[in-house]
Structure formats: C-alpha cells, structure tokens
Amino acid sequence: MTTKHKVIFDTDPGVDDAMALYFALAHPDIEVVGITTVFGNVTAEQATANALYLTRIAGYATPVAQGAPVPLAKAPGTPPGFIHGDDGLGNLETRTAIQGKAESCSAAEYIVKMARAHPGEITLVAVAPLANLGLALKIEPNLPTLLKQVVLMAGTVVEPGNVSPVAEANVWNDPDAADLVFTAGWNLTMVGLDVTHRVVLPSSFFDALAKKHNHLAMTTLQHAVHFYCNFYGAIRPEMGHACFGHDVLAFVYLVAPELFKTQEGRIRVATTGIANGQTMMDKHGKLFYPQPGWEPEKPTTHACMQVDAQACIKLIDATLGNDWLKAPLVA
User: Fold this and answer.
1) Which of 90, 195, 201, 239 has CB atoms 3.0–4.6 Å from 224's, for a disulfide?
2) For residues 184 and 237, what is the distance between their CA atoms, to the nearest angstrom?
C-alpha cells in the first residue's frame, strides 16, 4: 500500500491554484490536511473565501487558515484581476452559500502547529508568494527539520520570467520571503517556469471534465479556466484558447517525480532593483565566488528543468476524471 502524502497547501486561489487544489483532493495518494492562504492573485481575504468555497462545493471540509496580507518587506502591489478575475475565479456571477469558516490561528501558526504535531510527515506545497513560509520560519527556526519536504511552484532558472525578463510572479511578489525559503535548509524542490511553460491545457480539456462530472465544483473550475484562457489568448495567440498548468505541476511532481528531470544547486533571490525577484542558481556548485551569499554551506534546491508534458496532461486528466467529488457542503 502506498502511504499518502500529508500535505499543507499554501495558495492564493487563483485559477491555476484551483486546478492544483482539485488535483490534490482527487488524487488517491494525497491527503490535504490543511490549506493556508496568502495575498497574491487576490487579497488574502479573497484567497481564504476562495479556498473555503472551492473545498466546500467539492464536498470537503478541509481546514483553511488565513495568512499574510502583504509581503515581508516589499511594498504591496495590486492583485492581477485581469488574469484571474477580481474574485480570483473568473468573476463568478453567483456563489452558493457554503458551510465553514477559517481557522482562528494564522497560516504561519497553523503550519508550525501541524509540523510540530506530525514531525517528518508533512509536505508543504506552496504555489503563491512565500510570506507564510517566511513567517513560519521566524516562529519556528527548526521548521525545515520538522517538515518532510517542501515543493514550490516558483521561480525560473533558464526560462524568461512572467513579470519581468528574469522574475516569476510568486517570487517577485515577495522576494525577501523567497530568499529566506531558498536558504532555510529543508528538502526543497522548485517547480518553476522552466517546466510549467511546457504544459499547456486547452479550455476544451476542462469542458470535457465538466461534462463528465456535471458537478458545481467542475463547472466553477470550467468558468474560471475560460477567463484565464482569454487572458493567455490575448497575449499568446499561438496557444489558442489554452493556459499553462503552473500550480498543478507542483502536485504532479509530488506524486510522479519521474516525469521531471531536476538539477541541484544553490538558489538565491534578488530582492531589490531591476532584477527584483530573479531566482539565481549556482549551477557549478564547486567554484569559489568572491561575492558573499554563495558559500559552500548554503543549502541546495532541486530545480525542475525538463518535463514529460504529455504524461503530465494524461495524469491530470485521469486524476480529475476520478470519482472524487462529493455532495457540496452548503449552508
């Protein structure tokens, strides 16, 4: 029997976050023990509302803890409503009333509490700005030894950035938190734009899933994906009516790491200037650099550099096509 991955999902839903959440709930080898929310694609408050809504309409009472509303040091920006919708889910016309509310503790406190209660068992999958992880490290400096592993949808090594020529959005939104995370010393894997830009999902993919399930959760995701695909269609017409998988790839890596090729190296983040948010990787590993910050004792990250895109799409389809949806938990 396969032991399930106990996962805390750190997220800012967000259309691709919704894809990732539903993949995690649907996959038989993943147990989502909690969701922590943060600013990013939407405000932290909206991210919490979306996490509660997405889980409850799918029939799951997963705990949700609200996290950081702003970056650790960088001035806060404005959520990209033109990408995900002002509500993060493609501007839903209506929402069904649901049960449940957020936990009384903060996201950082929830992460630390769960890690202490289940040492060596929890995987943290983070697909948002990394403020919650940074704050959790400040509460519990030994957190890297308490968590089993951390998987990030963040950064890029070779692929151009999506908010500047060198920066990926999650890292750019809170570069100070990201640099803390990349140097903390946990078992860390980065699933960045080097691979997420290779996995393109057409809107028809989600149309077929919505038709198969005929369930509020999948029609909600279908609506959000169409909004998301409209954004990509405007800036990348060569893609057709499609979008990048982005966040869902973090969970695909978790359950099927054999679909990826990784490279190990030290990663640091530029926190100021025109390169703000750049994830810089030491690909050599054995060279001496006079520039401080690249000392041999700095921890390394496994960065995903290649991916079997078609196998990923097949796995996402099979997982979301499973019989995993339940009756909505309505108020």
Assistant:
1) 90
2) 40
12 is catalytic: yes
Is 15 in contact with 224 (CB distance < 8 Å)?
yes
CATH number among 1.10.238.10, 1.20.1260.10, 3.90.245.10, 3.30.2130.10, domain 5-320 = 3.90.245.10
pTM comes to 0.97
- In DSSP notation, 296-318 reads TTS--EEEEEEE-HHHHHHHHHH
Active site residue 246: yes
Full 3-state SS string of 210-221: HHHHCCHHHHHH
Query: Of 5, 10, 12, 17, which one is the catalytic site residue?
Result: 12
* Catalytic-role residue among 5, 27, 213, 246: 246
Q: Six-digit token pair at 173?
A: 């939104």
pLDDT tens across 15-68, in order? 999 999 999 999 999 999 999 999 999 999 999 999 999 999 999 999 999 999
d(CA 32, CA 29): 10
- Token readout for 143 is 């957190």
